[in-house]
Structure formats: C-alpha cells, structure tokens
Amino acid sequence: MQSALDQFRISIGRVRDLIELHNSVQSQAAVTNDISDMLRAALVLAVSALDYYVHEVVTLGILEIHRGQRPEPSPSANTTQSAFSRFQVSLGGARQDRLTSLDIATWIEDEIQQFYGYEFLQQSYKVSDLIPSISNSIVNRLNNTSWLESEIRERLGYQTFQQADKIADAVRYISDKKLWNEVAVLMPQTAANSSHINAQSNLRVAKIAQGIKQELTSIVDRRNKIAHEADINPAFGIAERWNIDDILVGDAVDFIEILVESIHIVINA
C-alpha cells in the first residue's frame, strides 16, 4: 500500500509547484491579468490527490487481505461480518475461481505439469512430496487477483472519498481502527489551530476529531464551489468570485498532506 502514499506525495508536489508558479508570476510587476485561477486549480488538485489516495490505498488493502498478506478487520458493532467480508463482487468476475474449484484435480495437475513438466507426473510420489508443489500452485493462484482488482476499481470508481464520513466508510474495508479518533491523536495541533476549536481548552480526542472533520469539510466545500459553481459569489455582481490567495490554499494543502500521512500511519499500525 506504500505506492498509494508515494503517488499522493507526487501529486501534492505538483500542487505545490503550481502554487509556486502562481507566486512567481504574481511577483512580476508587468502582470496585469488575474491569475488566481491557478490557485483554484491547485486547491481542486489537492482534494483530488486525497480522493485518489483513498481509492488506491483501499483497493491495495483489499487485495492484500485477499492474498493473506494483511489481517482482515474485525466486524463492527452489531454486525457478524467485517466490511471486507461484505464487499460485493459479481459472479461473472469470480467465475474462473469457481470453475477452478469445481475441477480442482485437473487444475492441480495442469499447474504441476506447467511448472515441472510432463515427465514429473509420470512418476510415483508420496503425498508429502507433492504438498510443496500444490501449495505453491495455490499461492500463485491466490496472488493472481487481476479480476478482483478490476471488480474493486469498478465498484469504488463511481464513489468519491473527500468527505470525512465517506473516507471512514472506505477505510473500514481494510481497517477496524476508529479512523478519526486515531488521526486526532496524531495531528491534534492541526485541529487546535482550526477555527472550530478553542486551542486554550482541554481538548478531548473526540472533539479534536470533530475539528479535523470540520476543517476537511470546509476545504471540500470550497473545492466544490470551484468545481461546480465556477467559484462565483452570488452575493456580488456577474463574474465576481470568492476571494482566494496563496495563504488560504497553502494552508489547505498543508492540512491535506498531514491528514493523509496520518491516515496512512493509522491504517498500517
């Protein structure tokens, strides 16, 4: 799942490059055009990087659980199965595994012949001698999850993971941690700096978590204004947009970066 975090860091690097480009152009005295849309683009891209990270880390996590490389999360309260166990795939996608199970003897014979040759099967062996060969074939089969990956990506592809509740729902497929409470322990200073929380009070974990979620909601709401409303402020005249500057966007990018790094620590702890 490290590749999901690596890709996020690359994406956030692109966002910071765009902000830096804006600031560089803005500093030139000859510039007369409004170039604030570069900052709007940077904010949208930052939220997109978060969204993509969640999609990718959950997809990779489900595949790791399926292969036995990661423990399956425990069922949540009032359920008998984990979110992972309840993840739905089509019968068409699972068709090849079903056919293999129905004729397991032929499959094992074909696998052994493919790896060891026809002559290998013409000799007599003890069952104990064949166990390593059979075990290797089964492991290789479990690791061949291209059909499952396609199913996961299709199933998650139409969903967005930007709002806190949606992110938590997605993470439950691969982790039974209480995501936002765990994240709050890792980034309390970020939450304390939020306008939603008094930094001087004795913050409980739940209140810190709430502040983090509210801060994320605020960033995503602004992203939605840009992406779906052209960032137009209807209270003013035609084509008047909501104010934006490099400090606002920079703070949002910093928050998203710390948030994703914290989420990654939590789900891998």
Question: Gist?
Answer:
The protein has 269 residues and is an all-alpha fold. The protein folds into two domains: 2-86 and 160-268, no CATH class; 95-145, no CATH class. The chain has 13 helices and no strands.
Keywords:
13 helices; 269 residues; 68% helix
How would you describe what is shown here?
- The protein has two domains: 2-86 and 160-268, no CATH class; 95-145, no CATH class.
- It has helices spanning 2-26, 37-67, 83-86, 95-102, 104-116, 118-121, 127-143, 146-157, 164-171, 179-186, 188-192, 205-229, 246-268.
- The chain has 269 residues and is an all-alpha fold.
Specify the overall morphology. elongated
**Ends: how far apart?**
13 Å
Instruction: Report the average pLDDT across residues.
Output: 85
| Radius of gyration (Å) | 25 Å
> Which structural category fits the helices and strands?
mainly alpha
Could you give the count of β-strands? 0
Number of domains: 2
> What is the helix fraction of residues, given as a range?
55-70%
Low-confidence stretches: 190-202
Could you tell me the strand content as a percent range?
A: under 5%
Strand count, sense and barrel status of the largest sheet are: none
Per DSSP, the total helix count is 13
Order of helices and strands: HHHHHHHHHHHHH
